[in-house]
Amino acid sequence: MLDYNSKRKYSNLLYFFFASVCFLVALIPLLSILYYTIVNGVSVLSVDFFTKVTPPIGVSGGGILNALVGSLLVVAIACLIGIPLGVLGGAYISEYPGKFSYYVRLLAEILTDVPSIVTGIFVYELIVAATNHFSAWSGGVALGFMMIPIVAISTDESLKLVSSTLREGGLALGISRAKTLIYILLSTARAGVVTGIALAVARVMGETAPLLFTALGGQFLIHSPNEPTSTLTILIYNFGTSPYANAHAIAWGAALILLFMVLGLNIIVRLASRLKVKGEI
Amino acid sequence: MPATLPTVALLGAGATFPAPLIQTWTVQFNQIYSGVTISYNPIGSGGGIQQITQKTVDFGASDAPLSNAQLAATPELGLFPETLGGVAITYNLVPFGLANGTVLNFTPNVLVGIYSGTITHWNDPAIAAINPGVSLPVNLITAVHRSDGSGTTYAFTNFLSDVNINWATEVGYATSVKWPVDTAMNANGVGSKGNAGVAGTVAQTPGAIGYVDLIYAVQNHLGIGAVMNAAGNYVSPTVQTILWAAQNATGTPNPSDLRLHIVNAQGAQSYPIATYTYLLTYKDMSLNPDLTQQKAQVLAYFFWWAVHGGQQYSEGLDYVPLPANVVAADEQFLLTLNYQGTPLLPSSMTTG
Amino acid sequence: MQTQQARPAQKKQGAPRSSVLHIALGIAAAAIPVITVLLVYEIGNGSMPSIQAYGLNFLFTSDWNPFPANGGPPILGALPSMYGSVVTTVLSLIFAVPISLGVALFQAELAPRSVRAPSLFLVEMLAAVPSVVYGLWGLFALVPFMRDYVDAQLGSTLGFLPIFRGETDGLGMLTAGMILAIMIIPYASSVMREVITAVPTSQREACIALGATKWETIKTAVLPFARTGLIAGIVLAMGRAIGETMAVTMVIGNVARISPSLFLPAETIPSVIANEFTEVAGNGIYLGALFELGLILFGMSFLMNLAGRVIISKLGFKAKQE
User: What is the CA radius of gyration of chain A?
Assistant: First the structure.
């Protein structure tokens, strides 16, 4: 039998080993996903890939143009809704604390937990069923509803971090609350607010479920947001589950572009906030 | 057909069975009339019926014809067949040693057994008996069916109900049924979304069997079975055998009720699981709030083109061009399409 | 930071001007409760046909037959999808909780300073990958791996157990549970890490002063302190797992079935809704049943997340969501 101290040493080593192995194990899927996406996606990239629209089922060739444009459009609409309402709502929660703010903040947290497919059927009933119309608009609204609480919470958190001295300083100078908010508080909290927005955008860009019943999908470039449209995520789902090798290749290519945008946004945001922490206030 | 058409975006949704053909049509139509973009979303026949009934799309598509109850509930809806095809029995056995290109025979009762979960392994005596000389693997059969509402399911279960009284009473035929294989002991049933999903699952699962529109099986290089028809012969699905089924069973189409039943058709070499597939539209298109008169007219022209110029693309995709009498009946139906009473197509329309 | 020129004394405009801002911001903030109310209303309203037809039986019926053979009304029940949701979530926790704890300990205690920031970053990237990309990878990488290696091994060694019975094609509850586990690791480990870091250094220092090894410090000072928070992390991860749609739908096999074998295909509530929602052929009860499933899902996810958050707020700090 080991003596007592050796046992302690070995259980300590075991702990090191366990924690490190867990960390490495958690990384394996990430590396595998990156590997598969890059290896399978790169081979399909070409000028055609970015300039042609999705091919009909079973037909070779084609590209992702309409899906890429669709993704950008739907996210842009989501931002139109999510950013103003989110930032202003978050400002309210932080600047006017009280019962109402408390419940708004609580509901915001609840909304961020709602499974995105529930948001999808909600917006279907709210907009699509009521207007008998699938559209990029309704998809953008669904994503916008998801963005609002995320942006509101991060804006609230960022504003809360601004020291009250600055708040009081502005008021002491006789500046109105509105100007205090805009010129002093939001600009100081700018980094945090922008980070929150960017992360929310990255999140909704990768969503599929809410779009399945709102933006629906399509094969052509759309003329207006009133039409239904495909997006990168819808494309990946439909083409990935189809039996055609060409469709699979396009799905991987779309996944590569999507990962590039989503992870890229995440990386930029985190690098930027790290630089800010080192460089500025 | 007119020389130009205005810039218009239209939306259709429904069956996955004809989706390769319809999507090819929309691309070709867009080549001819560059402003017309028609998006077709394959979400299953059930979805096609649902969406056109809800008026969330401009036209629907379904292999399952509207039932009498559905037609009674929405008499303003009309349907017309735009193509026909065959439901292939497809399987993936090459990884288990079956030579590439081997055609397995299936009787209706064997298919009932597989999808009921009573025949669970490929080397079951029932399968071996009708496939003499073939070395069948011992492996489990993964019976793939649709997880969504499907006209292909409708055609397949219609066939099984026609030939097997137990299936007819216990399971029946519909766009979505409760597959006994899902709950049977020792059997393995899997659901996939769309013809594409079933074909994909079969392609990726050694030992799987599935029922799909012919083109999905051909394009995936999957094994395609020969099914025993009413005459007692094992027939493989080809454009020719499906056409024979249509010729023997279509009869004289009635333009005011274009639902045609050609499953289990007579004829020595008729393929027994053949089915027409239908486009669904409001006869008076103004009832669909999204359609302006201009859009409705473009849609009517698309329909006309589909049953005429569009048919040249059928064989290349393993669909069967519509027989002449069906085209004639379709023309009569299309000429009745109107917008608040005003016919959408000129009565002088010729096959353009 | 901008500074304002000192202004001459302004007219007494404080109250009205604040009110305008107050109202404007208040309207923006009101969007959140309005959306919540609308959501609950629309989903509840949409569920009514099903609630009226089935009542409470919906939760206990294991049939899912939208078009019965005899042409009668649909016979639908939530049990198969609830079963699949619960089983895959439990499976995912079995794998994810130990690994998340290990990851959290690594990040909070073990990692040298230079490794710590990258380690946080990499795990956060796991959370940033879109669900549909997980599903695509799952279909082409994980499913064959599970089918050819894991399920085959489990079947041959432990096949006498009902949970590992039967042959498999890789699409099923076990694979879905694995992919869920991977997806919830970042969330669970993030909460756990915060909880572990929040343990006062005085506790740790006391242990070190007594000559404890790192592991003993963790075991005696940190983990007991952090236990409640760790549970909160698990509960929050559960709430995430149960709502996950795309990745699960792509690998679970989509069959309405309740079976003990983990190899067999099944379905979860989100996968049923994703597969069948656009296709409900004008059928009031069927569509209502799908909405009712959405309502059940919303309720389950809400309760789990509420429980997790309440526990955490009682501990005095907030969990990071990113």
Answer: 24
Given CA atoms B329, B335, B336, B338 in this order, what sign does their dihedral have? positive
Tell me the chain B residues in contact with residue A134 when contact means C-beta distances shorter than 8 Å: 11, 56-57
Determine the distance in angstroms separating the CA of B47 from the nearest CA of chain C, rounded to an integer: 3
Would you say residue B352 has pLDDT above 60? no
C-alpha distances (whole Å) from C258 to each of A27, B10, B176, C77 are 33, 42, 19, 12
End-to-end alpha carbon distance in chain B: 5
Q: Output the DSSP codes for C35-63.
A: HHHHHHHHHHHHHHHHHHHHGGGGGT---
pTM for the whole structure: 0.88
The tens digit of pLDDT for each residue in A197-215 reads 999 999 999 999 999 989 9
pLDDT at B332: 92
Nearest residue on chain A to C116, alpha-carbon basis: A23
pLDDT at A270 over 60: yes
**Which tokens in the block code for residue C79?**
């049990």
Helix %, strand %, coil % of chain B (to 5): 40, 20, 40
Q: What is residue C64's predicted lDDT score, i.e. its pLDDT?
A: 85
Residue A214 identity: T
pLDDT digits (tens, 9 = 90+) for C213-272: 888 888 888 888 888 888 988 999 999 999 999 999 999 887 777 888 888 888 999 999
Is the distance from CB of C265 to CB of C253 less than 8 angstroms? yes
Give the CA count within 13 Å in the CB-facing half-sphere of C281: 31
Instruction: Output the DSSP codes for B164-182.
Output: -HHHHHHT--SSS---HHH
C67 touches chain B (CB under 8 A): yes
- Residue A216 tokens read as 């629906």
Q: Cα–Cα distance between B180 and B171 in angstroms, integer? A: 8
Range with the lowest mean pLDDT among A224-228, A276-280, C14-18? C14-18
Q: Give the separation between CA C279 and CA C207, rounded to whole angstroms.
A: 62
Separation CA C313–CA C229 (nearest Å): 10
In DSSP terms, B79 is beta-bridged to: B280
Give the pLDDT confidence score for residue C13 in this predicted structure. Answer: 46
The three-state secondary structure class of A224 is coil
Q: What is the pLDDT of residues C47-101, one digit of tens each?
A: 999 999 999 999 999 888 777 766 678 889 999 999 999 999 999 999 999 999 9
pLDDT beyond 90 at A6: no
Q: Do A223 and B317 touch (CB under 8 A)?
A: no
pLDDT of residue A84: 95
| CB contact A243 to B (< 8 Å) | yes
Rounded-to-integer distance, Cα C11 and Cα B343, Å: 71
Give the contacts of A58 (CB within 8 A, at least 6 positions apart). A244, A247, B20, B215, B216, B219, B317
Half-sphere exposure of B126 (CA within 13 A, CB side): 13
Looking at the predicted structure, is the pLDDT value of residue C15 above 50?
no
DSSP string, A183-194: IIIIHHSHHHHH
- 3-state DSSP of A55-77: CCCCCCCCCCHHHHHHHHHHHHH
* CA-wise closest residue to B332 among B103, B80, B135: B80
Report DSSP letters for B201-245, one per residue.
HHHHSTTEEEEEEHHHHHHTT-EE-EEE-TTS-EE---HHHHHHH
Q: How far is B223 from chain A (nearest CA, A)?
A: 14
Considering only CB atoms, C67 lies closest to which of B176, B190, B192, namely B176
